[in-house]
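Hey, quick one: can you model this chain's 3D structure?
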Amino acid sequence: MKIASFSRSGQKASYGVVSGDGLIDMGSRLGTQLPTLRAVLEAGALGEVAAAARDAQPDVELANVMLLPPIPNPDKIVCAGKNYRGHVAEGGAKLPEFPSLFLRLANTLVPHGGNLVRSKLSGDFDYEGELALIIGKPGRHILAADALSHVAGYSCFNDATIRDVQFKHSLAAGKNFHATGGFGPYFVTADEVGDPTQLHLVTRLNGEQVQHTQTDDLIFDIPTLIAYTSGFTPLVAGDVIATGTPEGVGFARKPPLWMKGGDVIEVEISGVGTLRNPVIDET
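Sure thing. Here's the predicted structure for all 283 residues.
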């Protein structure tokens, strides 16, 4: 099941099950009790959503809505750095002993079709295609053996980064410029995605492939990331964990390859979808 969070003119934000080229508006059907996708996850009600959508017809065409980030208001966004072997090698670093994590702010998120903004403070705007997971069942000190049972679904993520700020100032600043975190297009339930270690990820800049990998190249797999993260903070429904980017990033190229206004960046993951974002220059 694919679920989109969306808005349309004159109506409050909602969420719906993707059906062909349309959406079955679940917010209008279940909104009193379950007004958002995050509320659905908090209630453990994905089965209720599936049942309500089973024989329903789409209420609106996808072309007539504005997509939102799948979880527009996550409690936390945790990102893994240096988590693909190839990416560590291209940066000349050693394999890490433990996950290297940082946090993103929710106001950095940009939905499918939304504009990623290259800051006027820097031209070093880099792409990072990633697989993101969304927590369904909350937990603390989750065992790796149980971790996948806490995953409700997956989406595509672009952890776009202002590199000179990251390297010269701080990781937190370089990763948290406004409107730099592409997220979408949909939330895809874990049962539909299947084995998350067998997915193919491709990033394209203006149609040209710049990153590609199988997700089995992760240094710290999804269960390990969940176990590690839940050791220092409780995970709650709707939390997002971006699992890291593979080799091919712009800063490691000679000469460096930066995104600029007028570009289009895509992150495609098999079984999950394609996240597409235009790039604009900040005015």
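One thing worth noting: The first strand starts at residue 2 and ends at 7.
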